[in-house]
Amino acid sequence: MRNPFPPMNVFSDDRIAAIHDAALDVLERLGVKVLHRQARATFKTGGARVDETTEMVHIGRDMVKAALATAPKSFPLIAGNPDRNLLMELGSMVFQPGAGCPHATDLERGRRPGTEQDFRELITLTQHFDVLHMIPPLVEPQDVPIHLRHYAMTKGQMELTDKVPFIYARGAGQVREAFEMLQIARGISDSDFAAHSHCYTIINTNSPRQLDIPMAQGVMDFARAGQMAIITPFTLMGAMAPITVAGAMTLSHAEALAAITLGQLINSGAPVCYGTFTSNVDMKSGAPIFGTPEHFKASLAAGQLARHIGLPWRCASGSAANLGDVQAANETQFGTWGCLLAGATVTLHAAGWLEGGLTVSYEKLITDVEVLQMMAELCTATAADEGGIAMDALEEVQPGGHFFGAAHTMERYQTEFYEPLVADFANIGTWEERGSVDATTRATGIWQGILRDFIPPAGDGDRLAALDHYIDDRIAAGGCAPES
């Protein structure tokens, strides 16, 4: 999808330039603490001033400028199905459901720690809806030991979806094995894998001003392999960042630039996506909140900063509500509008996210998708040619008449009004048949029907068998711990 709307600004251009300049000052004068020894050595080789005692790295402006010059402004993401390939650049528009949740919930089974079954079911729902374009780490399958979890998560994605998959940056060993599994399952040669990005990860800096060992390792692993990393500081105003929008965005921008620079030092031209996840907290409890005016403004500022450096970028919606109620719907929709009007390339947590990321809800995923489908239709070109102007209909219908049966209407109505929703809502019955059942309850029947009738995308049986063999061998050898 393409975003047809001019992006909104929250700050003037000179203030965005001032924020960018302040972020460069933070990196050069205050520095960033980098816990990974090899990452510090890479920065030092690239010209940064490194204090090994304090682990502080001071990154010069010229280093950042050089990194931004080599980071690609536009690049493809290759999916299992070519029709689902994505173009990462400013102006593209990609939606993802909620991600990274330790719990899952639905009306039938209640709130529970995430399992492999939940992960596979949520992949299935994401695959079903065309308006969800990439697979994120929807829920953490905690019934699978951590040294085996990457096998289950990669296997689920290879079997159930042909969209762009996600790989956690949990140590070089797990990343390497996940890359190998992806290549086996989708028949990707070493040369093609190196030439194009076939998967992605998310790198969260440890705010304020710290890049920890797993995330630094992830930046280097993905850059070295030529796979996309979405660099996303998680800055909450008043907690891990200054309480003002401008202050929080200055810190977020600095941290993103630091990680982008590391990736480009490892592999000049490696695909990277600028990211932000900035909102505010409840100052009484310290809990994160989303869908607020500050969240909205931070998204607009992030969009301006992304355009200032020219990179595709990721933003985030979300909700801190505990239930999939009207508060949750309002928070998610308000947050998503902020991403849309900010011109985000990728919008994460756009469907199903609850409790500030503690839970992904099956029902809320369904109800949020309806809003995303409306947004997708809103971003579809609207005809204003002779047919769209409808002079023939205006001539046909006389004063006091109606357009229900006009030829112009009859030729168009079946495709003009939310046809993508028909298949999912066709079997829920009339109002009289279903009674006064609320939207969340109706959503239960929809997701259950999708799971019941789901047909996985056609995959190569020999390749999937080879993937199973690979996984069996690795498990027999003891798996792979995240730190390996």
UniProtKB/TrEMBL annotation:
GO MF, any single term: methyltransferase activity
Main EC class the enzyme belongs to: transferase
UniProt keyword terms in alphabetical order: Methyltransferase, Transferase
Its EC number(s): 2.1.1.-
Gene3D superfamilies noted in UniProt: Trimethylamine methyltransferase-like (3.20.20.480)
InterPro entries attached to this UniProt entry: MttB-like_sf, MTTB_MeTrfase
GO biological process, alphabetically ordered: methylation
Protein family (similarity comment): Belongs to the trimethylamine methyltransferase family.
Name used for this protein in its record: Methyltransferase
Organism: Tateyamaria armeniaca
